[in-house]
Amino acid sequence: MYKILIVDDEQKIREVIKEYAEFNGYEVEEAENGMAAIGLCKLNDYDLIIMDIMMPKLDGFSACKEIRKLKDIPVIMLSARGEEYDKLFGFELGIDDYVVKPFSPKELMARINAVLNRKNIAAADQTGLMKFGGLEINISARSVTVDGTKVDLTPKEYELLFYLVHNKNIALSRDKLLSDVWGYDFFGDDRTIDTHIKNLRNNLGNYRDHIVTLRGVGYKFEA
């Protein structure tokens, strides 16, 4: 389970983000200013930080600088200001995304998922290969082999399999799969997921049972 730190001096904003994040299966901690965020990062590890810019005691940019001295954690900045200068300054600091208030919580979740997916891809690319018995997934080559035989997947089937594998042993709802793999603005339905899962299972042959159906919820890749 991914662990997220939400840093914002407005409690209502923290509560909204926390509600959506926990619904999407994330573990959440909160901080009301940059100083508190730095203190938490000294004590804990996080997979991603959502950081407001304008905060008392220490602003988001300064907090981001200090946290980056401690740990390499992806950061999504929040701001009521959408000036190009702020965005460019943030990206120069190495932030991963920038969201202007007011924002759609659903879109923010999609951006969180995209940042975490990029982080997973970067980590997987260091080894390039994931193995589950005779099932091998080569990240850099975007290829899948079953007992030594290469199987042909569509680009979307590959993305879905890759996402399931990187979230192995985690229950994933159909809505989350649609949002993260197809995009938050995709206007499909549950049948899209079910059809692709069926095709994936057929392609995986003896390893089809790695993809488990969770009745009333969705799917998970069981490793």
Automatic annotation (TrEMBL):
Superkingdom of origin organism: Bacteria
Protein name, per record: Response regulator transcription factor
Organism per entry: Anoxybacterium hadale
Organism placement in taxonomy: Bacteria, Bacillati, Bacillota, Clostridia, Peptostreptococcales
